Amino acid sequence: MKKKYLIYFVLILMLILSFFFLKSVKNQKILEINSNAVSEKEFLFFLNKQVQPVMQKFNNNENNLNNDFWTKEIDGVRPIDKLLEETIYSIKRFRATYEHAKSLGYVDKISFEDLDHRKTFENLARAEKIKKGHRVYGLSEFSTESYMTYEMDTFEKKYIEDNKENTNITDEDRLSYYEKNKDLIFKKTDDIKIDFIKIRQDYLSEEEMTLAEKELDKAYELLENGKHLKDYFSQNDSIKKYFYEKDINESNYSIMLKEDGDVLELAKDLSKSEHSNIVNKNDTFYLIEILDRKDNGYHSLAESKEYINKVLSEKEYEELIDEKLKDAEVKADKEKLYELIKNNLRI
User: Among 50, 181, 279, 306, which is least packed by CB within 10 angstroms?
Assistant: First the structure.
């Protein structure tokens, strides 16, 4: 009988010891930033966000992975090392952003788990609004990543608004940004009268495509001889469907960019009365003629001031966060972190 109780006692003792052992293993701090532990869930979240960007840096993709991709040196660097570096950096940036927001009273609790809880409550609130037929702006349901982006954007906008009277941005800064980006950002859209031919290969049989190519060659020859696309295509019923006329200006440029961005790209360096070569782009044949083009100059510095202030304020905010994360103290058990990464990537 005593022997039986002794066995029970030993089994219970072993269970208790196992519980505390597993708890101590679970609570091991394999990564700390400024003495604050990073949970496994938080680490894996930021790790998974970095997998694709790191693969792309090494010119690789999921279809071209072999067993030693992550651990084999490429140009002197192992992808797994870069992955760990980028993961820790992104966690540091997350922590710096939220610590700054807390110091300003924008948020009370700043751990990754707190963010996840706020996301859950926000999703429940939105689901309740939708159920009652109320309008919900933005996403109907947030993922952890989209909710983090939402909060971080909110912090940035609030900080910029709160400090717009105390900004360090000067008139010289605005002028410098304007001059450096004048052609890229502040040039007004030209008024363009354009005719073009657009033939998508995937809509045609091989026989139809052969005939269309012949018509393209004829059209190009006409342009070379000083005639116009419209003179030929608009009067030929069998090929009229490939012919387009557009008047492009500031008001409809964005629509044209969405519908026929390739045409705008091919036409950007063509002047009045000039035409393109026959171009095959994205499995579509193009031939473009510029009938007229008016240069509308640039938006003035005064007109652009609000936009420039926004861009420079965002840059100022990013630099502030950069400064805060520079001094972050990182303690990492790299052996255990590499083991965690390998398990997650199954390598």
Answer: 306
Count of positions (residues) in the chain: 347
Does the residue 125 lie in any domain?
Answer: no
Phi, psi of 279 (to 5 degrees): -120, 135
Give the DSSP H or E segment for 209: helix 206-224
CA 123 – CA 141 distance, rounded (Å): 5
- Give ∠ CA 191-196-197 in degrees, rounded to 5: 165
User: CATH number for the domain including 214?
Assistant: 3.10.50.40
Phi, psi torsion values for 221, nearest 5 degrees: -60, -40
Condensed to tens digits (0 to 9), the pLDDT of residues 110-153 reads: 999 999 999 999 999 999 999 999 999 889 999 999 999 999 99
Please tell me the pTM assigned to this model.
Answer: 0.75
Q: Which of 38, 23, 34 is nearest to 333 (CA)?
A: 38
Count the Cβ atoms, other than its own, within 10 Å of residue 290.
19
In angstroms, the CA 245 to CA 198 distance is 11
> Which of 270, 294, 318 corresponds to the end of one domain?
294
The pLDDT tens digits of the residues spanning 161-177 come to 999 888 889 999 999 99
Rounded CA separation 115/110 (Å): 7
Cα radius of gyration rounded to whole Å, the chain:
31
Query: Is 204 a member of any domain?
Result: yes
- What one-character DSSP code corresponds to residue 284? E
